[in-house]
Design brief:
Strand order of the largest sheet: 4-3-5-6-7-8-9-10
CATH architecture of the largest domain: 2-Layer Sandwich
Number of domains: 2
Bound molecules: 2,5-anhydro-1,6-di-O-phosphono-D-mannitol, magnesium ion
Strand content: 15-25%
CATH class of the largest domain: Alpha Beta
CATH topology of the largest domain: Fructose-1,6-Bisphosphatase, Chain A, domain 1
Oligomer: single chain
Order of helices and strands: HHHEEHEEEEHEEEEEHEHEEHEEEH
Length: about 325
């Protein structure tokens, strides 16, 4: 009797993938892989909660308001706590900072060298209506050598280009995790029957162009003139015209832009003159992924990854997408603004 040889595609889990990537680094100790596996574990737990939210009675608003004055959802708080718990005991995470925490938190009893900044559940307005939401994360190494953690600000407020890794998990029709450590962008689908994120696509590249624009056009009248003119062009016959696609969850809108190409825009508006999205845990990780996939991300005048942050919760305009779409947009901004 001869044994059957399995020649079909092998399953690779995200943890194996991260380990393989790290083993290519001569100085790797495995510590960074251990940290990332804390995030993948949190992703599995949050995914299970999101999928059963209606049954577990965790839909709807909590009684608290976050630092931005926004009503927190029960799932926001639960997701934040899940990530804190999954990272807290890893030993190598020194500081965590999140959309749902007023200030960065130093993890007691560790001299961990990593800083993890995250939006635990982005797109919360979509939770109660069964539309995709996501988790976004960015990882830095502590800069100051201040491992006693008296003032975590300088460790947290680093430019996006110093990110060691970034990624997101989108809880959509399936749960997909996408990450980069600066060596390409890799995508994994959660197999809920076994609880593993299985490799779906390695070295994902964003199409160089794409006829989709993704923006909340309800704010059109208060967009800068250059943005208005660009959006008008997208609707002309000369342009195609482009198709509009807007979910209202950054993670889901970016996920589609990454795979299909096009452009996502959150410009300054009358209500949010600095833009709505947050630099440290929304724009930075998305920009790192976009660049690694061959795309671009700008605030309109500067590359997102070069912006020097002043505070954990600062906002920024964000334009991210295919290289040629961002370049065209910049042309409009140069001409009109
Ligand atoms: P949140 O972090 O409070 O969920 O807000 C961020 C979300 C993004 O996911 C999305 O791109 C944007 O807000 C949508 O805003 P708007 O409803 O103004 O279009
Ligand atoms: Mg958010």
């Amino acid at each position: 009797m001869s044994a059957e040889i399995v020649t079909e595609k092998n399953f690779v889990t995200v943890e194996e993938h991260i380990l393989n990537q790290q083993s290519n680094h001569p100085t790797s100790t495995g510590s960074f892989s251990w940290l990332l596996s804390g995030i993948t574990m949190a992703g599995r737990i949050i995914s299970a909660k999101v999928r059963r939210a209606g049954i577990l009675e965790i839909l709807g608003e909590a009684s608290d308001v976050n630092v931005h004055g926004e009503q927190q959802q029960k799932l926001d708080i639960l997701s934040n706590k899940t990530i804190e718990q999954c990272l807290g005991y890893r030993g190598n995470v020194g500081i965590i900072a999140s959309e749902e925490l007023d200030e960065p938190k130093v993890i007691a009893g560790t001299s961990g060298k990593y800083v993890v900044i995250f939006d635990p559940l982005d797109g919360s307005s979509n939770i109660d209506v069964n539309v995709s939401v996501g988790t976004i994360f960015a990882i830095f190494e502590r800069e100051s050598g201040n491992f006693n953690g008296n003032d975590p600000a300088s460790d947290v407020l680093q430019i996006g280009r110093r990110q060691l890794a970034a990624g997101y998990i989108v809880y959509g029709s399936s749960t997909v995790l996408t990450y980069t450590t600066g060596h390409g962008v890799h995508m994994f689908t959660l197999d809920p029957s076994v609880g593993a994120f299985v490799l779906a696509q390695e070295n994902v590249m964003m199409p160089k162009s794409g006829k989709y624009f993704s923006v909340n056009e309800g704010n059109f009248n208060s967009f800068p003139k250059g943005i208005q003119e660009y959006l008008k062009w997208c609707k002309t016959e000369e342009a195609g015209p482009y198709s509009a696609r807007y979910i209202g969850s950054l993670v889901a809108d970016f996920h589609r832009t990454l795979l299909r190409g096009g452009i996502f825009l959150y410009p300054p508006t009358a209500k949010t003159p600095q833009g709505k999205l947050r630099l440290m845990y929304e724009a930075n990780p998305i920009a790192f992924l976009a660049e690694q996939a061959g795309g671009l991300a700008t605030d309109g005048s500067q590359n997102i990854l070069d912006k020097a942050p002043c505070s954990l919760h600062e906002r920024t305009p964000l334009f991210v997408g295919s290289e040629s779409e961002i370049k065209r947009l910049r042309g409009y901004l140069d001409e009109w603004d």
